[in-house]
Structure formats: C-alpha cells, structure tokens
Amino acid sequence: MSRVLVTGAGGMLGRDLLAVLGSRPDLKVTAATRAEVDITDAAAVRAAVAGHDLVVNTAAWTDVDGAEEQEAAATAVNGDAVGHLAAACAATGARLVHVSTDYVFPGDGTTPYAEDAPTAPVNAYGRSKLAGERAVARFLPETGYVVRTAWLYGAHGPNFVATMLRLAEQREHLDVVDDQHGQPTWSYALAAQLVALGDAALAARAPAGVYHGTCSGQTTWYGLARAVFALRGLDPDRIRPTTSDRFRRPAPRPAYSVLGHGRWAAAGLPPLPDWHTTLADAFASAAPPAPWKVA
After folding, report:
1. pLDDT tens figures, 223-275
2. Which among 191, 184, 272 is positioned nearest to 8, based on CA atoms?
3. How many angstroms separate the Cα of 222 from the Cα of each of 52, 152, 218?
4. Rounded distance, CA 57 to CA 144, Å?
C-alpha cells in the first residue's frame, strides 16, 4: 500500500484532492493543513515527508496582489518551502507532484504555451512560483513533477465562478474583462488528474518534469461569466464586456494564459477535457455548499 502526503490539505484544491484519494482503498493518505505542517520549516517538512511514497503539494501563497508588496514572503512559501519539500523527497526517495501556475509565462503569446516554452513572469507571484519549479527540477530531476494550472474554481474556496454568482444576486449587470484569455479549470477535475499522475509516477510510467493541468479550449473571463449565468438559468446578456484597464490591480495579469497539453501523452494520460464540459459537470455534480448549487 502506497502512502501519500497531501500538503495544503485545507485549501480548495487540497480538499478536492482528499475527496478523490478517499475513494482509493489501496492508498494510505496523510492530510496536512498549514496548521499541521508549516512547509517553510525545513525540519517539519522532513518529519512530515518521512515514510511517504508520494507527496502532492497544494500549499501555496495565492494572494497575487499581496505578493507585489511582500515578494520575499511569497517566495518563502512558493519557492524556498518547495525546495524543502523537494530536498526531503530526494532524501527518502519519495515522488513529488507540485502545483504551479500559468503566471510563470509572460502572457504575450498567441498560441498555447508548450511545457518547455521560455518562462518570463510579469509579476512577483509568478517569480515566486517559478522559484518553486526550479527547486523541484534541481532536487528531483528524475522523480519531480510540476503541474501548472490556471483559472481554478471549485466548491471549497473563493474563486471567479462563486464571485459571479454572488454578484448576480446584487447587481442587474456585471462588467467583466474580455481581453484576458485562459482556461477555466475545475479543481476537482484537476485533483483527479493529479492522482492519475501520481499513480503513473509511482509506477515509473511518467517522465519527470512539467505538465500543464488546465482544461482544454480557451475563453475570456467574459466568456466564462456568460457560461456560468447560462448554466444557472440566468440571462447571459446581463454580462457586459469590458477591458482590463477598467480594473487596475497592483500585480499585472498575463493577457494570454492558454497552455498546451502535449506532455500528458508521455505519461499515458489524456489531458483534461474541454472547459465547457467540466464546468457543466461541476454544476451537475457538486452538492451544497457549492456556490452554484441551490440547496
């Protein structure tokens, strides 16, 4: 029986990951929230990793705007702490699956970014996450896996889909940016993909390195908002397109965050389905307290 450690287990993705792993009687799972394991503490990380065959790291500094003013603090979590995890895994022989971000790219592309495309983050958050990717590559060149994701939504945390539904109850019309392109990704679907990659890693079927864990296809925030309203039975025309310069933020956002999925074939796994499909699945299968489900 393989032993799996999930760090960041209290977050949106972490909780979905535990739900997926909970259906696997062949795995013994240890759930570690931030309160239980501080991944910035190297000694605590070594103790937590000991005895596990696979570590899935979903712990992260996720405040993109806050990272602009506190880059050192963000890098301590997203970079240095990932190095602690990777070093601990290297010492014990455990595999590591680490979740990263599309923000490592500059966002000026016009075709999907391949897994080996040059990185050039445009904000502090992206730089902090790239530091974590490099730590995995340095300590675990043969047994480390980086899965970049983007535009996550799910039942267990604040996200764009939940925000749109909350605002739908407060406003007649919503202005949503139509000049940022990406791939809406259901956290539960990503969790299942991470588990599948972990299985392949433990069986030595998956080459180490970078994979892109986003849903297929692409849209804008405006397109996603319209799809959310349609699935909820609301009038999509209540959503009005606007531009990013109407919503100034401390951290610049990439205009184009569409990722390619070519490396999944090397692991013998299909990429995630089209974002329309998984959005519909999320609305159909999620139970309360999911924000899109009426109790």
Report:
1. 999 999 999 999 999 999 999 988 888 999 999 999 999 999 999 999 999 99
2. 191
3. 43, 15, 12
4. 11
Q: How far apart are the first and last CA of the chain?
A: 38
Burial class for 72, CB neighbours closer than 10 Å (0-12, 13-18, 19+): exposed
Q: Catalytic site residues?
A: 125
Quote the pTM value.
Answer: 0.97
**Residues 82, 85: Cα–Cα separation, whole Å:** 5
Amino acid in position 31:
A
CATH architecture of residue range(s) 2-153+184-216+258-273? 3-Layer(aba) Sandwich (3.40)
Return the structure tokens found at 100: 């990263």
The Cα–Cα gap between 290 and 15 comes to: 13
State the average pLDDT over residues 129-135.
98
Q: What is the CA radius of gyration of the chain?
A: 19
